[in-house]
Amino acid sequence: MARILISGLTKSYTGNGAALSALDLDIKDNQFVTLLGPSGCGKTTTLRLIAGYMTPDAGTIRVGDRVISSAEGVAPPDKRGMGMVFQNYAVWPHKTVYENVVFGLKLRRIPSEEARRRVLETLALVNLTGLENRFPAELSGGQQQRVALARSLVVEPEILLLDEPLSNLDAKLRERMRLELKQLQRRTGITFVYVTHDQAEALALSDQIAVMHGGKLQQYGTPDDVYRRPANKIVADFMGIVNFVPGIARGGETIEIDGVEMRSPHAGGLVPGEPIDVAVRPENVRLSRDGADGKRLTGTITEKTYLGNLIEYWVQLASGAVLRAQTHPLEQFDPGEAVGLVIDAQESSVFPRGEASPSTKH
């Protein structure tokens, strides 16, 4: 079993304060888990602590029933049953693909015939069959990343740690490699722990996402949970485009925006009359040419951006608030045009106005 149980994990750097504060995380066996957040949020520190490159100030890391890290001691990286894939590939330029991949097996004194079998099987797994005699300079960036993957997989780790491995690839190759990584994790059944700052990557790859900010875990859940049901404004803001629209709680599940009442299942527990911010995704705003009827908000198109598969609009409400909305490219409006808006409050999160935003909460 390769379940990773992290309890109270804390790490500080001299002069910089806590990089990680009392992290609790339960990574189940055979899952693809992503540590997601902006620079300085603690995600890479967490990965390095899991890998055994650092000693925590407090807390423990367990794999199965074994404590592998605590303030009292750390099992060395080569005794953890883990593989590591780095952002810069870290392949040896003077060695062939085969020599790069077989290196770890030689260190473990695996017999040459067995080593060759495992290398060729692993190269097939990452779609590098036939390239074993090439040098890294003769490979594309995606192929070099596959070599790094193969080198980690060939030693048959229980856990694979990946530190932003796709960030150096161009957009199309990155998208293709995302699919290959997910398929690879499913085929091997290895527990993947993946670090990225890219929300789309995290949503596409993960079984579970740990959203981190300011050295603390903000939310741990499925991609659907963290995108559609964010735990706070920090998560809502980080997980893609969002509008924070000012409103008022009216009691029960009723909220009011710009004089229009709507029902939201996320408004329970708020005090009637309390100022709120409603987190609205652009895809949950419907635009129309219908006028005000008490059920629609009204606004004016101020900006329009054509993005190919959709059109994005900036719409100014009567109150002065500005929303971003997205429509099908055949559904077009012009700057300066008055429009009606319907917000899908069922898919919108509601937060008290005083809750800290990403720019103020550390």
DSSP strand tally = 21
Task: Could you tell me the CATH topology label of the largest domain.
Answer: Rossmann fold
CATH superfamily of the largest domain: P-loop containing nucleotide triphosphate hydrolases
> What is the residue-averaged pLDDT?
91
Main location: membrane
Membrane topology: Peripheral membrane protein
GO molecular function, one term: ABC-type transporter activity
Protein name: ABC transporter related protein
SSE topology sketch:
Blueprint: E1 4-13, E2 17-27, E3 32-36, H1 43-51, E4 58-63, E5 66-70, E6 73-74, E7 82-85, H2 97-107, H3 112-125, H4 141-153, E8 159-163, H5 171-188, E9 191-196, H6 199-205, E10 208-213, E11 216-221, H7 223-228, H8 233-238, E12 243-249, E13 254-257, E14 260-263, E15 275-280, E16 285-288, E17 297-306, E18 311-317, E19 322-327, E20 338-343, E21 349-352
Parallel strand pairs: 3-9, 3-10, 7-8, 8-9
Antiparallel strand pairs: 1-2, 1-4, 4-5, 5-6, 10-11, 12-13, 12-15, 13-14, 15-21, 16-20, 17-18, 17-20, 18-19
Helix pairs in contact: 2-3, 2-4, 3-4
